[in-house]
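Issue 218. Parser rejects a valid record. Input:
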Amino acid sequence: MDPVSVEVEPNRNAEAYRNYQPAILPAQVEKFIDFIELCEDGYMLLGCSNLNGRFWTGSLWYFLDPDAAPDVEKCLTGIECETGVTDGKFLEDKQKIIVGEDSGVVQILGVSESADEHTFHFESLNSVCEHDDTVLSVSVFSDKKHAVTGSLDITIKVWSVESLVAEHTYRPAHLHQVSSVCTHPQDGHSLFASCSLDGMVLIWDTRNVKPAKVAFNNRAKEMTSVDWHTSRTDLVAAGTSSGDVMLLDIRQPKLPVAEAACFSRPIHRMKFSHHKSDWLAVCADDSKVKVLHCATNSPNIIYTDDRHEDFVHGLAWHSRNENLYSCGWDKQVLAHKPPLSLARMEVNGIGEAKNQEQK
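Output the parser choked on:
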């Protein structure tokens, strides 16, 4: 009998399955959009999760025009993921991304073009599962060659993007889940901040034998989000489960420089603006989007929008204009234009007196 010919060598079966990608787009963008990311060219990445279906899956979507999202017909490409996706970032090449998933998987995906059909699709370039629980936060260093992830397994890992090897593993990094991580806006691959439900905000330097330094510690305040000021590199913003936003000076740790009551529910994500570095966009387990002006010791709200109909979980500033984009669990992607003048506050784009009592 003639031997049976196979297209894939037996010892390469695992690689073939790991790199297999479906040829068609997912049927739809899931209702629960968990994160939104914009590259320098303005291209948009959306990450969604299916939280009420038979299978807890997710999907990723790539849009050339952020105003076209989340219309499936106008996307460049998309891909279904085996589990929900929590966070993702563009890498140096706008056609490569790094994504964290509910399963603990960290994955590098690339966008490639089919020459014969002139269509685009995602392909898995590398994938590892070294976290024991959900990856809650992903941040990329300024050199674009290293990334850091924080997980529900109380572990932080610093990755080499090219090989997807964990160069540093901090376990335990906190006493509770690592809610958020954020890299230094200028340092290449060493400095980052983290926060946790244990009430601590830590500043890390991977070059040191003892890499962590306490920037804030109060067990009465569960820390849920952290972001680094884009120009004042000594300033870090941290959000709490009670809806407060604190500004921390890492040169004078343990006491907030300023604090503002922003929401009555847990802060989910915060983003400093590229163009106006004192503007901080904030969202929570709430339907509102707010922008704080953080130039003084008493941050004040200069913009509020309540067009979303469910929790807002994603925020991203456009690098080529001053637009802010938000996404949420209502399957909406909305554009915002905060006021140019600080003399007034805006609600849904309508100017109001700055001293008007907020609802």
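Fixed in the parser; the record now loads. The chain has a mean pLDDT of 89.
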